Amino acid sequence: MGKWTKKQWRGHTFNTRTIRMLKKVEKRSGVRLNIAQGGWNNGRVSASGSTHDGSAVDIGMWGMSKRDRIAVAHAAKQVGFGCWVRKPSEGFSWHLHGLPFGDPHVSAAGKDQLRSYDAGRNGLANNAPDNTYRPKRKKRWGWTRNKPVRRK
Question: Which pLDDT tens digit goes with each residue over 35-79?
């Protein structure tokens, strides 16, 4: 099965590569992920705009401890997601919104958000600064190595 093959995982659509990444997030964080939204939604979730029209994930964090939210966010960034924890004070329910670096199936809006992530911004329309943890070395998922690798 190829890395871009789409399949269902926990009731949502992802490609094989993203599923491997999510499994590694679980392993590194020690937290079982509650998937709130996958990719290829084609505009069916208006609150997400078109960011989930390609490869993307929302991980539900409601009821999760602060320690677990931080562990999941750090692990997601370490395996190659550009991501942010969205919270009620920003008008969202608790969730992590993530987009996989190096995936050609990320939507145009998602690619804009990845550029925002690299610029230290929050990926939202207000383009506010995001001073949360970032790995010292930029990462993406290495398919053949089946682990995170350095990206440019």
Answer: 999 998 776 655 556 677 789 999 999 999 999 999 999 999 999
**Residue 84, strand partner residues:** 97
Closest by alpha carbon to 57, among 89, 101, 120, 116? Answer: 101
* One-letter identity of residue 18: T
Distance CA 116, CA 118 (A): 5
Region of 102 please: left (phi>0), alpha (psi -120 to 50) or beta: left
Tokens 């409601």 belong to 62
Which tokens in the block code for residue 45?
């979730």
Cα pseudo-dihedral 41, 30, 4, 113, rounded to 10: 50
> How many angstroms separate the Cα of 1 from the Cα of each of 4, 16, 37, 87, 142?
8, 8, 23, 36, 16
Question: Using an 8 Å Cβ cutoff, are 81 and 135 in contact?
Answer: no
Predicted model pTM:
0.92
